[in-house]
Amino acid sequence: MNFPNVAAVLQDALNSVQVPHPDGLDEPVVALSQDRYFSYWTYARGSYEIDDDIWGLFVTASIDNASIVADIEKALLLTGKFVKEEVDFSEFR
Questions:
Q1: What pLDDT does residue 16 have?
Q2: Distances (CA, A) of 55 to 1, 3, 36, 88, 93
Q3: 77: closest CA among 10, 7, 11, 18?
Q4: What pLDDT, on a 0 to 100 scale, did the predictor assign at position 31?
Q5: Pairing of the two strands 17-19 and 36-43
Q6: Which of 21, 41, 81, 82 could form a disulfide with 26 if both were Cys (CB 3.0 to 4.6 A apart)?
Q7: Residues 6+ positions from 21 with CB-CB distance below 8 Å
């Protein structure tokens, strides 16, 4: 089973558009030097960043994080390809 294309899922679900990263992190030289690729997306309720590196994929929002992450979570869960797992972070102290 292939890992779903998170950027495409979010683009379709949120009607988001990829735009240049405000900090220039989507430049090819960054991807080559850090083995990771950043992309920056905007949609009606805000913006988010996808950080795709060799160890994982991270989706973050620096402004209005709670509501944007909730939109992202909902979009991913609705595909049926993702599940939400509860984690007790106190175990990792």
A1: 96
A2: 18, 13, 9, 22, 22
A3: 10
A4: 60
A5: antiparallel
A6: 21
A7: 27, 38, 39, 40, 49
pLDDT digits (tens, 9 = 90+) for 23-70: 766 666 666 566 667 788 999 999 999 888 777 888 889 888 899 999
Residue with tokens 């430049």: 27
Give the E-state strand segments of 1-93 in sequence order. 17-19, 36-43, 46-53, 57-60
Angle of helix 6-14 relative to helix 65-78, nearest 10 degrees, comes to 100
Q: Strand, coil or helix: what is 65?
A: helix
Does the pLDDT of residue 89 top 90, yes or no?
no
Q: Map out the domains of the chain as residue ranges.
A: 6-80
Cβ atoms 39, 50 nearer than 8 A: yes
